Amino acid sequence: MNTQRVVAGLSKLVAMRAQEVDRLSADVAARDAEGARYRRHISQMTALMQSVETGAHVHPAHAMNGARYRSAMADLIHQHERKLASHEASSASLRADLRHARLRHEQIDVVRRKKLTALDIEQRARDRKREDQLASQAWLRRRLSHGGALSHPT
């Protein structure tokens, strides 16, 4: 029954690895959503920055105000782009962790399935042996009840 304990332990380990994979998958999904927000915000800020009127027909005070606004928006865009680059690097690391966790989960599950197969083969062999013993006992009882002799008459 040692194999059964090994299979039970491996099953628990597979369940723990599956939980780790699920947790990392949720983390990756959250990171992807956060990255999408960064990209959407950068796009919106770029559109806002480009919406400021410039040209010769604009009053000088409005032109100065627009230039400061564009400069501030450009700074915000650059900050968001740096944060996005950092975020994407950490997301790539998290994806690598997820791939590694999936691989460990699959490897342990393969071992568990092999042990289950071995346990099943072992159980079938025991069942066959028990059935053979029962058949032998039934044959012996029948032989003893029909003639009392075990050997063939000559």
From TrEMBL:
<protein>
    <recommendedName>
        <fullName>Flagellar FliJ protein</fullName>
    </recommendedName>
</protein>
